[in-house]
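Quick one: Lactate utilization protein C from Streptomyces liliifuscus, structure tokens please.
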Amino acid sequence: MSSRDLILARVRRALADVPRDDTPYDQAFERGYLREHGDRSVEQTVELLAENLADYRAQVHRSDADGLAATIAGLLAERGSTSVVVPTGLDPEWLAATAVTRVPDRLAGTPDELDRVDSVVTACAVAIAETGTIVLDGGPDQGRRRITLVPDHHICVVRVPAQVVSSVPQGLERLDPARPLTWISGPSATSDIELDRVEGVHGPRTLEVVLVSGE
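--- reply ---
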């Protein structure tokens, strides 16, 4: 018997005396969670997102739709990037102001190839203000999960206010649990036994978030 068979057998035994008409699990307990903490305007929610992103050591930038390409080009130039990974569905206008080498997000790409790329530019699925969290769901303008975990520099564009929600429950309502969700709260970081912070261990060392209005 495999471990899987053993676990499933234990589950069946545990449920053997449960009536078939018993209250469904998702209705068995009261879950009166707050959908939002406080009463904020749309502008205040966006400001809270920016504040919490910065608190997690992400670098936050503001732009409008017309200035987005120049903003991204400036961030790549400041970083000294000569190559950038591009999701297949990313708006080409976002990179129209830069001449860096575009590396397509392709299935055959290897981790070594991605490690040689300087930056990655993506959109996002949703941004959660109360936790300063950006969620990617592998959409066409975000690409495969690995392209946002291997390069050391990630530029993520958040459309405001359309993609900004206040709370995790509100964010979950917009997400498909069957998709590959990546939850990002600041650049990748960990601490050693003496609590010395080390960034870039499990993902990008630098996260730059562009809050773009008018998109």
